[in-house]
């Protein structure tokens, strides 16, 4: 808490430094996992206009200023001294609260936008009535709390009177007051229960609404958006950011309202009880604040160093365990143990130093607290002796000043939480307001009876939005005649998959046009195009961790069991599926982990075939398989290709010999077209590729970097 407080007060915002070491370990691991996945299959599978990213970048608001806000200064100044004088246990509790919040560094900081109050209002509006009730209850609880010190003071007065005079019955005199206090305690408990229940209801419902809206909007984004973002970042917005925002919202209403009311109420009570004592309290506060600020700053720095050292140690362990095969192969276990041990030792030294610092801080806090109590008793006692104050009033003053201190401690945690909550909310809302350049649906459809499946690329130029200077396709023209198989071959990185992505309309060309039956793809409904016209089978089939039945049905929601069986038969999959004890209800595991490569591929084929696509794209669909699996899958593909417009992208040229046309690509352009025999006779690039494959020499990769050379240069 103390460290958190000074973090808020001096630096103007929370820093990722932490005092609680085990928590930091978890945090580091989480960051690593979430950042690790870059969805290379997404990168390869999709596309979008350069302007889309530009438009997105333009929309992204500037990063907020890093200067400490005046409010945070005020927060620190108000609360610091109080905390120094506060009991250490409270400080520790608050410290834990501050530490448990997710670290700012694990979050994406893309385009840190401003908090969208309008959107927030839309989520809040349905809960206004319940919120109003919660606020009333919270205020009620706070006001009751202000009453309690005064009544306790009166009770002490009765005790003092009885101890002094020994007249009358203590029980009779104190009964009414005690009963009243008991009732107030009960009411306060009930009010607290009430507002916490209501706030939890609002918070959870808002979080569900926000997650739903964000997920839905993320799914609608252009593929180029996913090229530029890490999956971990997006998931973090859905989970950690919404969670952070929800917690902050609940805290602001519960602790914020309540603490402010209590501070205001108790300060009034204090100044009514003794203006002189209150003034002294206000004078002592800034001095203690100054000392605490200095110590807090040093501790914060130490804490950060400690985290960095722990991160280094974790990194060593992570690398060794992640590459355990390499470590084993080189018999380097001992060296890795030593490296990790050395890093751990450094962590221990830092952590112990930090521990000593915290201990000193806690010790001094205790002294400060006790001195404050002693000072209040001493000065208050002299006021009592001078009959300026009663003993009961002094007791009331002590209890009320404790309430103020507790409330201010809460407020200090709250300041940091509010800042974190606002930026988490801003990150969540930022992606809610993004709109894709290629809509998911909308546009016209070609009636099935008129759909022929003729695809043409007219002088298409294209570069990926995230690499605008790198021209992947340049004046590219290609025709896929209806019902024919066209194979696209060429060097690695030549742009073959990019052609498929443009056909799927994952991206739009930067120049030129792609047509289906003479209609510009941009005028057609993308969801109809992808959902009903085009079937895509890639090299790495991605299955969902559910049943085989559900995976095949993913190609056509609402397909009957018979349709699923027919698609599976067509894909040569029925036999192996029925050989499983659970048949079509077999769970395939995460991403199809419990199936072989060939089985996964055949399920992917069945999934594509169930929608009876007019155009089929096979992107190196058999290249990851061994020869036996390849034979079975190829058989399925040959069957599936009959009567459809097929674009086959292939590395292994042996698989495309039977294609009606073979198109050879180089440098983003078509450089040869013909049948296998024609191209062999021609003795050009195709013949060279065939020769290399016969010799088992890998085809050279396309040079990286900007280029606009002529293919034959
Ligand atoms: N999502 C992407 N964002 C940016 N550049 C990309 C993306 N996908 C591919 N590229 C780049 O575009 C170029 C063409 O890639 P593409 O995948 O179309 O080639 P390919 O001919 O299919 O290669 P291979 O035969 O090795 O699969 C490459 O230089 C690649 O680095």
Automatic annotation (TrEMBL):
Residue stretches making up the ABC transporter domain: 455-692
Pfam families: ABC_membrane (PF00664), ABC_tran (PF00005)
Keyword field contains Transmembrane: yes
A GO biological process held by the record: oligopeptide export from mitochondrion
Signal peptide, first to last residue: none
Principal location listed in the UniProt entry: mitochondrion
ABC transmembrane type-1 domain: residues covered: 132-420
Keyword Nuclease set for record: no
InterPro entries: AAA+_ATPase, ABC1_TM_dom, ABC1_TM_sf, ABC_transporter-like_ATP-bd, ABC_transporter-like_CS, P-loop_NTPase, Type_1_exporter
GO molecular function, one term: ATP hydrolysis activity
Gene Ontology cellular-component annotations: mitochondrial inner membrane
Residues spanning the membrane: 128-148, 180-202, 277-299
Family to which this protein belongs: Belongs to the ABC transporter superfamily. ABCB family. Multidrug resistance exporter (TC 3.A.1.201) subfamily.
Protein name per its UniProtKB record: Mitochondrial potassium channel ATP-binding subunit
């Amino acid at each position: 808490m103390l460290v958190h407080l000074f973090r808020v007060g001096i630096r103007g915002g929370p820093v990722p430094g932490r005092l609680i070491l085990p928590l930091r370990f978890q945090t580091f691991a989480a960051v690593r996992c979430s950042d690790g996945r870059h969805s290379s299959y997404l990168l390869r599978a999709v596309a979008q206009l350069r302007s889309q990213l530009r438009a997105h970048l333009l929309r992204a608001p500037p990063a907020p200023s890093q200067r400490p806000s005046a409010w945070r200064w005020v927060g620190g100044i108000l609360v610091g001294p109080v905390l120094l004088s506060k009991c250490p246990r409270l400080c520790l509790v608050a410290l834990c609260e501050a530490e448990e919040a997710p670290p700012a560094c694990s979050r994406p900081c893309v385009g840190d936008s401003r908090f969208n109050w309008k959107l927030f209002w839309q989520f809040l509006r349905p809960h206004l009535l319940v919120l109003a009730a919660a606020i009333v209850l919270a205020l009620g609880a706070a006001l009751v709390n202000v009453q309690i010190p005064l009544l306790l003071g009166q009770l002490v007065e009765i005790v003092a009177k009885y101890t002094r005079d020994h007249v009358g019955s203590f029980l009779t005199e104190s009964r009414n007051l005690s009963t009243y206090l008991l009732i107030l305690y009960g009411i306060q408990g009930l009010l607290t229960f009430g507002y916490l229940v209501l706030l939890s209801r609002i918070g959870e419902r808002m979080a569900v609404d926000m997650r739903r809206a964000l997920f839905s909007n993320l799914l609608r984004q252009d593929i180029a958006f996913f090229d530029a973002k890490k999956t971990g970042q997006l998931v973090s917005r859905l989970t950690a950011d919404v969670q952070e925002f929800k917690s902050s919202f609940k805290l602001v209403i519960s602790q914020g309202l309540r603490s402010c009311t209590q501070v205001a109420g108790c300060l009034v009570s204090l100044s009514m009880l003794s203006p002189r004592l209150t003034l002294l309290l206000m004078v002592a506060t800034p001095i203690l604040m100054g000392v605490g600020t200095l110590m807090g700053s040093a501790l914060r720095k130490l804490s950060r160093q400690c985290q960095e050292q722990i991160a280094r140690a974790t990194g060593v362990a992570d690398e060794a365990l992640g590459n355990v095969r390499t470590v084993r192969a080189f018999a380097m276990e001992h060296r890795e143990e030593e490296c990790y041990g050395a890093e751990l030792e450094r962590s221990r030294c830092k952590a112990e130093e930090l521990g000593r610092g915290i201990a000193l801080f806690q010790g001094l806090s205790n002294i400060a607290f006790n001195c404050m109590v002693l000072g209040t008793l001493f000065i208050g006692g002299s006021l009592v002796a001078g009959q300026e104050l009663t003993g009961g009033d002094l007791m009331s003053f002590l209890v009320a000043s404790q309430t103020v201190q507790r409330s201010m401690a809460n407020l200090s945690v709250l300041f940091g939480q509010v800042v974190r909550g606002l930026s988490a909310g801003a990150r969540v809302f930022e992606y809610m307001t993004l709109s894709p350049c290629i809509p998911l649906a909308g546009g016209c459809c070609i009636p099935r009876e008129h759909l022929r499946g003729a695809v043409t690329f007219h002088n298409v130029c294209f570069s990926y939005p995230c690499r605008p200077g790198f021209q992947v396709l340049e004046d590219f023209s290609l025709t896929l005649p209806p019902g024919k198989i066209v194979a696209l071959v060429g060097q690695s990185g030549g742009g073959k998959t990019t052609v498929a992505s443009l056909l799927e309309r994952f991206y739009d060309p930067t120049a030129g046009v792609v047509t289906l039956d003479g209609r510009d793809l941009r005028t057609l409904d993308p969801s109809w195009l992808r959902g009903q016209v085009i079937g895509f089978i890639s090299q790495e089939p991605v299955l969902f961790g559910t049943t085989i039945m559900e995976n095949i049905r993913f190609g056509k929601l609402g397909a009957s069991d018979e349709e699923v069986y027919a698609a599976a038969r067509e894909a040569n999959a029925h036999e192996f599926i029925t050989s499983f004890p659970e048949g079509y209800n077999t769970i395939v595991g995460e991403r199809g982990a419990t199936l072989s490569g060939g089985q996964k591929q055949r399920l992917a084929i069945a999934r594509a075939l169930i929608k009876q696509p007019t155009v089929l794209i096979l992107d190196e669909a058999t290249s990851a398989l061994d020869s036996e699996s390849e034979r079975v899958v190829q058989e399925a593909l040959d069957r599936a290709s009959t009567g459809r417009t097929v674009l086959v992208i292939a590395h292994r040229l042996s698989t495309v010999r039977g294609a009606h046309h073979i198109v050879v690509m180089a440098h983003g352009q078509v450089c040869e077209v013909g049948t296998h025999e024609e191209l062999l006779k021609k003795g050009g690039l195709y013949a060279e590729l065939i020769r290399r494959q016969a010799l088992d020499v890998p085809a050279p990769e396309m040079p990286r970097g900007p280029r606009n050379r002529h293919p034959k240069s």
